[in-house]
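We close this part of the discussion by returning to an individual protein. The sequence in question and its structure tokens are set out directly beneath this paragraph:
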Amino acid sequence: MTQDTVTIYTDGACLGNPGRGGWAAILEFGDTQKELCGGFRKTTNNRMELLAVIEALSVLTRPCSVQIVTDSRYVHDAIEKKWLAGWVRKGWVTASKTPVKNVDLWKRLMPLLEQHDVRFSWVRGHTGHPQNERCDVLAKGMAEKPGQPEDTAYTG
């Protein structure tokens, strides 16, 4: 039995860092496309980049083969360069012996990565990639939207 193949494009935005933030994802499955987005009053760009991936993977209803396209080196490198595995092994400290930021989100992401066959690829942002540009518009729109909740896990 073969797994369904899904391509997910993600982006996060912050007006100030920290500041008002938004995240967005576009999921493509065959000819179907779904857009997701959300935001917070006070957060960081990296939290929004991570949350876009988490929220997108969370809507998948069965194990899939997933290609995530992100313009976030932070998210891409943490997975593809095995930083996340090292942080877990070292008790959530970085190579420079400082606490890993956004541990709450990394811990939410880990089981989602185990449920699916996930590969990450990086695309340079703001270079005309259609889905990346659309995610950027959605994420910025959510960052600008009044009445967003507070990112209660943000401690900065």
Summary: The chain has one domain: 4-144.
